[in-house]
TrEMBL record, chain A:
Belongs to the binding-protein-dependent transport system permease family. The chain crosses the membrane at residues 20-40, 87-111, 131-158, 204-230, 250-270. One of its GO terms (cellular component) is plasma membrane. This is ABC transporter permease. CDD domains: TM_PBP2.
Automatic annotation (TrEMBL), chain B:
Pfam families: ABC_tran (PF00005), oligo_HPY (PF08352). This is ABC transporter ATP-binding protein. The keyword Cell membrane applies. Residues 9-259, 364-604 form the ABC transporter domain. It is a peripheral membrane protein. One of its GO terms (molecular function) is ATP binding. GO terms for biological process: peptide transport; transmembrane transport. SMART domains: AAA. It is found in: Cell inner membrane. The keyword Coiled coil does not apply. Keywords: ATP-binding, Cell membrane, Membrane, Nucleotide-binding, Transport. It comes from the Bacteria.
């Protein structure tokens, strides 16, 4: 009927921007940081570890855009090189933790019984402690160093993925397609890995994305406290730590702090975008 | 006669569209009808025909992006379509009440029944809390809730589905509305409970004079209650009239198709194939320009390219069809005969499946640490034989154990006790690895076409999986050829292989599910409610497909359903299950003509027939109460608590399943007494 006035429908591009604009922005920021990390030596003019006491604590200028730190190192160079450590550690912790936790949780949920019970109590045990304190304790026991800190973080990291994948698998395993696969004669490994897990990846991907920022933050926190990387390796958290006393020389701590802020926020935007994309209710609007 | 007075509700040219991103979905597209005071109006149509959206428009219960874009809804001098929010709130619940399909979700689970009923009444300021409480108890009693003064303080989860629907009705009637809209109120209920609720609805309409709009997909339910019927198709009313006329002499081909697609419980069919119409309803984003039913209509003529109006065809009747406008009649066509399926000699009676003393008990979690271990006796001593080549039906109300039995036979569950012998092999406690070779011969079709196909796999992967697992297809090319054959067998296009399940409709998915079951070339197929999630015309298509496949491939079916008419139509023998035990088993024809068990008799009488004249003449045996819990079945005969002819002996002694007529075995102390009593009364 032509005489019915329809409200104006927003154009496809406006709708897409309204829904995924922030996520796209987040993805662009992440991409920029990843490229910066890969091409760090070509993007910077100085050696990140070059000590030049004569140049110490210079404010931002034409030659040192973000100033220099207490040892005369160029802050801009160190921030860009710092992306290498932070992004790598974040990804390793989250991806390894997610893979391990997911498989363990899924297997436990499919097996039921004592395996599930035991695993869940183990995760409860980890959840009893504040994650950063527990990671600190483990890292301190293992000794300072990037690898040891990563191991410490992994211990704290996998249980949330185990819990999520367990609940996802439990909700999937009562679906009729699982019974159909059983009645055809497929074994448990095939059903779990090829049939159930592909249906559970959506929420896991959302958690992984949201968690990347979190992992970078925790690692920066541990480094800030002196547990993460060994100095002089450029790393954002330890840079903030080195600058925390220097109130007058604000640039030493501010710029690595801003780097952490942008990466964490960008990952959160991306995670929210993924969640909207996977949620059919949010999608329909 | 209400005809003279002003109608209570006048809907004129109502258009409710969903303004989605991809353009308007014209769900209700120009619907007009009247409801008079005290009238019962039925609305039928398949899913997507716009009947529920129409009801929600009247109550203005529309969520974004649905919007009433045109037309008016005049109710007692007000236009509900244009009333402000405050105005419509005064109408909702007070003057127009609504009862929804799913009694499990329409009550708030954390509030007591009493509070929900009292709030519904005090919200409109007509009752004080104390008066509302007294009235709530009275209403529940009127709705047939036992011990209403006590149960009013229960939480919804303590009530069964039928009881909750009674609570919903009590809530609906609590403010003495002049119109009640019931949207599929009995679809989620068992047939005996459905009969009770329909009876209640009829009585309430008669005693309180409340007008009722009853929305249903089931012509039997409609003909049972309604004094006028609207048939909806593709967002329009296509036919309107009294049920007596409309259901015996339909004037729209769609009504005709609905009527013929459903098997009837009161008729013995000479052929198991049903009359179906081809295709799917059109896309509501772009209705065809002419008659919207034209593409599927077996009677279409050239003029149908023009859009027909809803015009009177007779006194009190109207139809939207060019063919019947011009006096054309809708004949019943010859049923399609199966090609070369001449009746062969009855095959020798070789049992393919033998079950004896089968039990499955599920231990439940204890309520407290020291509590007694509770056990759900889902299947509790079943003996059954299935002969190669026959179709055995398994019927019963929900919770009777029929789905558990299916999963025991296919060994998805392991029995607690008893024996299952399939094709000469004892599979009672066989390991999954030991059964795997037998799975080539025994397959299953599932109920829910939306859950039974893995949404992340393409149709090609779903169908090739079993072929590769069982080594039927040697290589990828052989698998592809076989998958193409399978798709052709179930009547799906070959290019479906690369698509995902969500791209198919419910009926097409059920075809894929059947193709998957047939992939390994089984001779025994367990079908667990294969058609109960589908619309009636799609049901008929799937039944026809299953019958065809049985003839072509010599399949044996164990067919599980709750719809007695369907079971009567497709099965050779029927077993009636009640609380995990077989009450009666026998040839389909004998079981329906002279049911020997009182439960079978009441089940048959509870199933509605889509013909008001037959419905009036039938003798209804009211079924008392609700099925008892399988946690604690009654002593003696399990059915005695609801049995109209139970005696003291029934409580003391459990009747064994004994042969009472040729091939007909029954577990009752008084076989045939109820049916014979009917025969004497007639």
């Amino acid at each position: 009927m032509s005489d019915i006035a329809l409200p104006a429908i927003a154009s496809a591009r406006t709708r897409w921007l309204r829904r995924y604009g922030l996520a796209a922005f987040g993805a662009a920021v992440i991409l920029a940081w990843v490229l910066a990390a890969i091409f760090a030596p070509w993007l910077t003019r100085y050696d990140p570890n070059l000590v030049d006491v004569a140049m110490r604590l210079r404010p931002p200028s034409a030659s040192n855009w973000l100033g220099t730190d207490a040892l005369g190192r160029d802050v801009a160079t160190r921030v860009i090189h710092g992306a290498r450590v932070s992004l790598t550690v974040g990804m390793v912790v989250v991806l390894v933790g997610a893979l391990f936790g997911t498989l363990l949780g899924a297997a436990a949920a499919y097996a039921r019984g004592w395996a599930e019970e035991g695993l869940m109590r183990l995760t409860d045990l980890v959840f009893c402690f504040p994650p950063i304190i527990l990671a600190m304790a483990i890292a301190a026991a293992l000794g300072i160093g990037t690898v040891n800190t990563v191991i410490a973080m992994l211990v704290v990291w996998w249980p949330k993925f185990a819990r999520l994948s367990r609940s996802l698998v439990i909700s999937q395993r009562s679906m009729e397609y699982v019974e159909a696969a059983q009645s055809i004669g497929f074994g448990p490994a095939h059903i779990l890995l090829r049939q159930i897990i592909p249906n559970a990846v959506g929420p896991l991907v959302v958690l992984v994305t949201l968690d990347l920022g979190n992992a970078i933050l925790v690692f920066a926190g541990l480094s800030f406290l002196g547990l993460g990387t060994v100095p002089p390796t450029p790393e954002w958290g330890s840079m903030v730590g080195e600058g925390r006393e220097l109130v007058q020389q604000w640039w030493v701590a501010t710029f690595p702090g801003l780097a952490i802020l942008t990466v964490v926020m960008a990952f959160n935007f991306m995670g929210d975008g993924f969640r909207d994309w996977l949620d059919p209710h949010a999608r329909r609007r | 006669m209400p005809g003279v007075a002003e109608p209570l509700l006048q809907v004129r040219d109502l258009r409710t569209w969903f303004l989605t991103d991809s353009g308007p979905v014209r769900a209700v597209d120009g619907v007009s009808f009247d409801v008079h005071a005290g009238e019962t109006l039925g609305v039928v149509g398949e899913s997507g025909s716009g009947k529920s959206v129409c009801a929600k428009s009247i109550m203005r219960l529309l969520d974004e992006p649905a919007r009433i874009v045109g037309g008016s809804i005049l109710f007692k001098g007000r236009d509900l379509a244009h009333l402000d929010d405050e105005g419509i709130r005064a109408v909702r619940g007070r003057e127009i009440a609504m009862v929804f399909q799913d009694p499990m979700t329409s009550l708030n689970p954390v509030l007591r029944i009493a509070r929900q009923l009292i709030e519904a009444m005090t919200a409109h300021g007509r009752f004080t809390v104390a008066a509302a409480r007294r009235r709530a108890i009275d209403l529940l009693r009127r709705m047939g809730v036992a011990a209403a003064d006590r149960t009013v303080n229960s939480f919804p989860h303590q009530f069964s589905g039928g009881m909750r629907q009674r609570v919903m009705l009590a809530m609906g009637f609590s403010n003495e509305p002049s119109l009640l809209i019931a949207d599929e109120p009995t679809t989620a209920l068992d047939v005996t409970i459905q009969a009770q609720i329909l009876d209640l609805l009829r009585g309430l309409n008669r005693d309180l004079g409340t007008a009722v709009i009853l929305i249903s997909h089931d012509l039997g339910v409609i003909s049972n209650i309604c004094s006028r019927v609207l048939v909806m198709y593709a967002g329009e009313v296509v036919e309107e009239g009294a049920p007596e006329a409309l259901l015996t002499d339909p004037r729209h081909p769609y009504t005709w198709a609905l009527l013929h697609a459903a098997p009837r419980i009161d008729a013995q069919a000479e052929d198991r194939r049903l009359i179906t119409i081809e295709g799917q309803p059109p896309d509501p984003r772009a209705w065809p320009s002419g008659c919207r039913f034209r593409a599927r209509c077996p009677f279409a003529v050239e003029k149908c390219a023009e859009h027909p109006e809803l015009l009177p065809v007779e006194a009190g009747r109207a139809a939207r069809c060019w063919v019947t406008q011009e006096g054309g009649a809708l004949h019943t066509p010859e049923r399609a005969r199966a090609g070369g399926a001449a009746p062969v000699d009855p095959p020798p009676a070789v049992p393919i499946l033998e079950i004896s003393g089968l039990r499955k008990h599920f231990p439940l979690a204890k309520e407290t640490f020291f509590a007694r271990q509770r056990v759900l006796r889902a299947v509790d001593g079943v003996d059954l034989q299935v002969i190669a080549g026959e179709t055995v039906g398994l019927v019963g109300e929900s919770g009777c154990g029929k789905s558990t039995l299916a999963r025991l036979v296919t060994r998805l569950h392991e029995p607690t006790d008893g024996r299952i012998v399939f094709a000469g092999t004892d599979i009672t406690h066989a390991s999954q690895a030991a059964i795997r070779p037998l799975r080539r011969r025994m397959q299953m079709i599932f109920q829910d076409p939306y859950a039974s196909l893995n949404p992340r796999m393409t149709i090609g992967e779903i169908l090739a999986g079993p072929l590769i697992l069982h080594g039927i297809a040697g290589d990828a090319a052989a698998a592809r050829t076989r998958v193409a054959e399978l798709l052709d067998l179930v009547g799906l296009p070959g290019q479906s292989v690369r698509r995902f399940p969500h791209e198919f409709s419910g009926g097409q998915r059920q075809r894929i599910s059947i193709a998957r079951a047939l992939a390994v070339g089984p001779d025994f197929v367990v079908a667990d409610e294969p058609i109960s999630a589908l619309d009636v015309n799609i049901q008929a298509q799937i039944i026809n497909l299953m019958v065809d496949l049985q003839e072509r491939l010599g399949l044996t079916y164990l067919f599980i359903a709750h719809d007695l008419a369907v079971v009567r139509h497709v099965c050779d023998r029927i077993a009636v299950l009640y609380l995990g035990k077989i009450m009666e088993v026998g040839p389909a024809a004998a079981l329906f003509s002279r049911p020997l068990h009182p439960y079978t008799r009441t089940l048959i009488s509870a199933a509605p027939v889509p013909d008001p004249r037959v419905e009036r003449a039938r003798r209804h045996v009211p079924m008392k109460g609700e099925p008892p819990s399988a946690l604690d079945p009654p002593s003696g005969c399990r059915f005695r608590t609801r049995c109209p002819i139970a005696e003291q002996r029934c409580a003391l002694q459990e009747p064994p399943l004994l042969e009472a007529a040729a091939g007909q075995r029954v577990a009752c102390h008084f076989p045939g007494r109820l049916s014979d009593a009917d025969a004497r009364d007639l």
